[in-house]
Write a structure and sequence with these properties.
The protein is mainly β. The chain contains one helix and 14 strands; from the N terminus they run H-E-E-E-E-E-E-E-E-E-E-E-E-E-E.
Amino acid sequence: MKISRSGLLCVLLAMFFWAAPGGAQQQPPATPTPPSTPSTSPSDQPQPYTGIRQPPPPLPKIPDVRQPGETGYWVGVMGWFPLQNSIVDKGKAAAFTDPTHTALQGTPKYAAGAEVGIALGLHNALRFTYFDTRAAGDTTIPAEVTIWSQAYTAGTLLSTNLRVRNGKLSFDYLTWPYPVASRRFRLKTLWGVEYTGISTGFDAPLLPLYDSSGNPLVDSSGNVLSYMTSGNHWYFSPALGMGVAYFGSRRFRVEANGSGFAIPHHTTTWDADVSANFRSGHWEFRVGAKGFHFKTSTQAEYYMRGTLGSGFVGLRWYSD
């Protein structure tokens, strides 16, 4: 098939116009879609600076476990059986040289005590304790002595009696650990004040008080003769110490406390106790040992000192 020159020229012109821009209908290029941006709430927008610092978030709360005696209040009674070791002697203010050192006799049947306590703050407590003990007995003195200005000759049967009273107000402050959380051990410092009173009495019951006619005997001043004499001292003192407790459970704990205070050449007081405590409901049974020491001022004409100690039993009632 032969194509003429004019026909070939027409085909070339048609192809030229088809390839030229605008010569044929072309598809428009696709428009790219802008990336979507996440929607933001007003709270996510940057806040303007106001000059006020925002407080840090609160710390997480640690559970605080309270053991018996760390909430509410309690009352208790106790009895112990102290061994006496008390003496009366002359002090630095004595104006006489006669011997005075005399041991008081007898062992009391028991010493009665009581206590009241109330919880204050976190694991702290305020306690008041009191005890009263008496003893009486007889002894034959080996040498002449002068007691409370009454003279007794050697070989005299001497009757003695003693009474010791002590009351203490103590603030028991939790020192370690803190925070307690669920720990079972407690270390407390004890801050208190106490009163101690000591009373003594002496008599020679076998010495005659009447003559053969039944008339009372008199001394050189015409006063009715008596061999009885008595004296007492009392004092207040700080009471500083420490106490520990371990709670095996809410039904059992072991406790130990000790406190005291001494002024050199004046007064001295200390007391200590250790106990095992068993609880059932609101009641707690206690068993342990207790010691107490006192000394009145040696600057006086007479002074007294003694140490009491024994086992004890007690009962407490808790409000919680």
